[in-house]
Amino acid sequence: MSKNVCMFVWNHFTNDARVLRECTALSEDGYHVDLICIEDPNDKELPLFEQVNPRFTVNRVKRYPTTLIALQKVYKKILDNKFLLLISAVILLYLLINIPIFIICLTFIVVFFLKTKFKGIIIKGNIILRMIAKAYSSKYDIYHANDLNTLPQAYIASKLRLRRKKLVYDSHEVQTSRTGYNPKTIKLVESFFIKKIDTMIVENNTRAEFNEKLYGFYPHVLHNYPFINLDENNEKINLHKLLDLPKNEKILLYQGGIQIGRGLDKLVQAVPLFNEGTVVFIGDGKIKPTLIEMVKEMDLEGKVKFIPKIPLKELPKYTRNAYLGFQVLNNICFNHYSASSNKLFEYMMAGVPVVACDFPEIKKVVEEEQIGICIDSHKPEEIARAVNQILADEKLRLLFSENCKKASTKYNWEEEKLILLKVYNSLLKEKELLLEV
After folding, report:
1. Exposure pattern of 3-28 as b/e (b: 16+ CB <10 Å)?
2. What is the mean pLDDT of the chain?
3. How far apart are CA 9 and CA 12, in angstroms?
4. Measured by CB atoms within 10 angstroms of the end CB, which terminus of the chain is less buried, N or C?
């Protein structure tokens, strides 16, 4: 029986750890996985097609409509060439005489060359149509949507056909309670499509309980645990040398997206209260320029360093340098409050103790496994208190580190992936039963 999977994700698939793990696990279990994602026009080295392994391919659809790309090239050539610019001026003069044609052309220019909302709609619509077309181009048994922004594409490809296919909705976030999203609109869209799916996956039990209250059923729980550390050499990138720090300087690490609501402003405010150490941020995001400016204004450039985003495969080599790690999310929405946090487990795998927010899923792991200290992440003085406690007690820090290594045998993808495989195998069994009827 065929085991072909079409998976969707709304990003460039360069640092999506969860999707990488899921696709790899399925392909290693005999499934053929085609992942459909989006090209990055700014990264010329990122291919449209990748063969990750014999059963796992990545297909990046083009971001911009072909017509728009062609028009932009023509537009640039006209601006760069005085002769073409003159001809364009003559044509424009002619169009002014022919008002109806002029209005059509002017509308065309506004839509495609100005930064309008309509242009964004056209670009997103182009991506969605290309994803759907790609999904229809081959035969698949299961369609897998990562998050709500790919669920419509997966629904159309799996259900709008003569022989309907199985549809998995894998929600990495609490869609109805996220920053920057209208909860009423999101709930309206999600509640419509959620009635069409065959099964649903969420990140943890807190979110599963929330989903049950919202939609009346308890989805499968698949935690976002990392691959277990099998690198016996524990190879490191020398961060001290890279950042020109003294060899004995303690690195206090934050790795991940530099975004609103991650508590990073509070972390910077806490830095002057630390008894020692240098805070290192590894990652990129919307508020990174603001954070860098904040560090300058507080005259903390000698105590806070920034490193760009690191590829997932290389990241553990950087993480191992840390004396402790931060996960200081702020409670700005239920999505943050209910998070399990991938970086928490990445620190764990590297044997790095944590200073973490006291949210339910995070606090449960930190306190049960004794791998760090939970604090009120909204208060810089609380962050500083925990940091200084670990800095002052080397025995406590070593205990946390040893507990991290023990806990890594429990909180790892090698164990967790069995849940994903069980979900998929049950979907295939359902399909077999339907074929027999």
Report:
1. bbbbbbbbebbebbbbbbbbbbbbbe
2. 89
3. 8
4. C
Cα distances (Å, whole numbers) of residue 211 to 206, 322, 364: 9, 36, 20
SS (H, E, C) 30-42: CCEEEEEEECCCC
Q: Are 281 and 291 in contact (CB under 8 A)?
A: yes
CA dist., res. 242 & res. 314, Å (int): 15
**Distances from the Cα of 45 to the Cα of 14, 50, 61, 332, angstroms:** 12, 12, 15, 37
Q: How confident is the model at residue 437 (pLDDT cuts 50, 70, 90)?
A: very low
Q: Looking at residue 183, what is its pLDDT?
A: 87
- C-alpha dihedral sign at 27, 32, 36, 42: positive
Q: Which of 15, 10, 12, 3 is nearest to 56 (CA)?
A: 3
**Rounded distance, CA 437 to CA 426, Å?**
17
Q: What is the DSSP string of 59-75?
A: EEEPSS-HHHHHHHHHH
Helices (H), 204-303: 205-215, 239-242, 264-270, 288-297
Q: Which pLDDT belongs to residue 87?
A: 65
Q: What pLDDT, in 10s, does the model give residues 214-239?
A: 999 999 999 989 888 755 557 889 99
Q: What tokens appear for 35 in the block?
A: 């992942």
- Continuous segment of H or E residues that includes residue 130: helix 117-136
Task: Output the six-digit token pair for 57.
Answer: 């391919």
| pTM given for the model | 0.84
The mean pLDDT value for 32-55 works out to 95
3-state secondary structure of 436: helix
**Mean pLDDT across the stretch 148-175?**
96
**Residue given tokens 């609109």 in the structure block:** 185
Q: Place 283 in a pLDDT band, splitting at 50, 70 and 90.
A: very high
Q: What is the pLDDT of residue 123?
A: 85
pLDDT digits (tens, 9 = 90+) for 83-112: 555 565 556 555 555 556 555 555 665 555
Mention every residue, 6+ apart, whose C-beta is less than 8 A from residue 285. 257, 258, 259
Cα separation of 70 and 304, whole Å?
45
d(CA 155, CA 170): 13
DSSP state of 271: G
In this structure, what token pair is assigned to residue 121? 């709609």
